[in-house]
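Course assignment 3, question 2. Fill in each field.
Student: A.L.
Task: Predict the tertiary structure for the chain below.
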Amino acid sequence: MKKQVFNPYLPSYEYVPDGEPRIFNDRLYIFGSHDKFNGKEYCENDYVCWSAPLCDVSDWKYEGVIYKKEQHQGVIRDKIILYAPDVIQGKEGLFYLFYSVANSSVISVAVCDKPAGKYRYYGDIHDKKGRVVGLEKGSYFQFDPSVFIDDDGEIYLYSGFCGKKEIDAKGRFFVGAHVCTLEDDMLTVRTEPKIILSRNDCPDNAKFFEASSMRKIGDLYYFVYSARITGLHYCTSKYPDRDFIYRGRIHSSSDIGINGHTEENPAYPVGNTHGGIICINEQYYIFDHRFTNGTSFCRQGVAEPIFIEENGYIKQAEATSCGLNGRPLLGKGEYPFYIVCNLMDINNYKNSKEKEKNKTFLTQSGEDRESGEEQYVTNFHNNCIAGFKYFNFKDFKGISFKLRGRAKGKIFISNSEKGDFVGECAIDINCDEWTEVYSEFSIMNGIGALFFKYVGENFIEIISFKLF
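Answer field:
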């Protein structure tokens, strides 16, 4: 029997955001940045890779470090932090890892003979005269590469970033998303970059920010990108390099845009976003990431199924706890609290500083590591809500929580964010060790969510819950 798959889909100690899903030889590979737990900035660790067989995407394998920061030998070597990569197989069979070093405006490439092997530095993207693209004044700023090989063999490299300014200190322009074509060597630009989505082409809350990702589905080209904190959005065209039309939002790990949630009222802490589309066993998914540890620098990959209509439209995917599972989770057994998909504090604070001080978030004990399923929610206090979607309930009898802290109050349980309470669990603890509290009540058979709201004194930490 296959294991269930949760969101986040990798182990709770792993922080791989900006995930680009790729399929090679009947395996799903995740190529992304690599955050450090308790890190002070984005992407402090080396690139790692995880993979799973298409027949069982619960069976994730750690492939190890595939490229180290110290291996980078490009023109920019002042401060080497490896940002969001993409990997594609070239025409001769080798695998090419495209990446950008922080604040460089240069796309670099590493190469390997297998998708999750040990990559070696190959070169910087350059023009036919050998000049590195993105360095010169007046050029388009290069960032977040996405590589696409069309049916006719043409190789496209997408890139772009839009800060609040339109030009950086070195005279390079933040124009939006742009594309160029490459020679078969995967390094030499064949046609000059041209804009496919300018900084002002889309609605205000959907303007291009970063995170280019290209796929072709049927006869349409899908350009996925990040719009700052409002999620992943997409445009479509009949061509890979022009005439893109904005279609909408695909996903927000904060559910901005659905279920009544906005930037001011998110279902989960907001932050940047990055991901891509992949088809697994005839089902399309959108890959993205979420924030943890109360910081922007500790992100984890999530994925959700998406459904593409005949006209190419994709309805926004809801943030769930089941993601790649393909079905609701079983309404029995023990579940880690880190699979929470909605995490909210509905208190009215005087200002943002007070709100930040009182925030509830996911964290872990100890330092950055490569083992140990110990992520938990902390500072879960009065009027905080945690949501888990979805379960298939059958003959449900009760629930227990494994928690710790010094608190007195109740956890109220409902089947929806704004639904009536179906049960409650009394909390009266004063302990530093994990302890279990239990409550009996019933839930109707069928598919539903679980939302937990704490009302009481002080705060609790919760590591898991068990359904009976």
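Instructor remarks: The chain has a mean pLDDT of 96. DSSP finds one helix and 28 strands in the chain.
Grade: pending
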